[in-house]
Backbone:
């Protein structure tokens, strides 16, 4: 378990003075690192996707693109960034509920409210980690039925727990098994995932899922993950969103 892990934060607000004041408040928290700030919401969206901060402090009432629209982009891209709305108007509070923000701060606010935000963030992350750990425990300790999948020449019966890596190709899918065998499946990957109904299979990138029980290492710099079982070693590219997911769980080796 990582202790006092740095919380990365970003600020998007069309008011430079509001950004400057929030920066002063946030710098008082040793665990918070401000990775970006901008008065341009369009630029902010690009930086959110590229840097994937843990928290974004997001003003709602902005020209061209408002904070609610930026938050929609975060949800649509399935970013793990938690949203803290900052606004001078409480009238937006109801509209923001569907976006499930971490918090909603009405300006002017002070350091006391930010203490609450940080504590709420830590509590939410611990809860997600616990829920995920429980899911893994339950999956690993219940009987798992084999799934019938179609191949070019017939069918194959696969135990989901034996799948190390599942890759999507143009007209088929590839299943790398812990036995060392590789099966070519003539079904789309999402159909296979639905049939297996196995929470240990986690998205690594746009075209592959990995079984986290075989995950041994995630290299943040190379954006690669390492899967091992006995003498089997598999490397697979991993995207920013998945790296952030594993970092927040605090139970996988990130380098």
Residues:
């Amino acid at each position: 378990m990582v202790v006092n892990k740095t919380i990365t934060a970003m600020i998007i607000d069309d008011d430079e003075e509001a950004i400057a004041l929030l920066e002063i408040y946030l710098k008082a928290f040793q665990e918070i690192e401000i990775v970006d700030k901008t008065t341009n919401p369009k630029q902010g969206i690009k930086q959110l996707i590229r840097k994937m901060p843990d928290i974004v402090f997001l003003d709602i009432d902005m020209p061209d693109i408002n904070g609610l629209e930026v938050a929609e982009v975060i949800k649509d891209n399935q970013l793990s960034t938690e949203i803290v709305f900052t606004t001078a108007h409480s009238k937006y509070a109801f509209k923001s509920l569907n976006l499930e923000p971490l918090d909603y701060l009405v300006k002017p606010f002070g350091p006391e409210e930010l203490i609450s935000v940080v504590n709420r963030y830590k509590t939410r992350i611990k809860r997600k980690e616990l829920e995920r750990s429980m899911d893994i425990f339950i999956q690993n300790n219940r009987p798992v039925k084999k799934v019938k999948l179609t191949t070019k020449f017939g069918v194959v019966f696969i135990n989901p727990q034996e799948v190390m890596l599942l890759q999507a190709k143009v007209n088929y899918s590839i299943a790398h098994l812990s036995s060392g065998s590789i099966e070519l499946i003539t079904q789309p990957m999402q159909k296979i995932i639905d049939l297996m109904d196995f929470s240990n299979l986690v998205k690594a990138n746009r075209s592959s899922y990995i079984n986290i029980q075989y995950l041994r290492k995630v290299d943040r710099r190379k954006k690669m993950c390492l899967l091992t079982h006995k003498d089997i070693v598999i490397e697979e590219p991993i995207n920013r969103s998945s790296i952030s997911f594993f970092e927040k769980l605090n139970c996988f080796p990130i380098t």
Q: What stands out?
A: The radius of gyration is 21 Å. The chain has a mean pLDDT of 86. The CA atoms of residues 158 and 253 lie 28 Å apart.
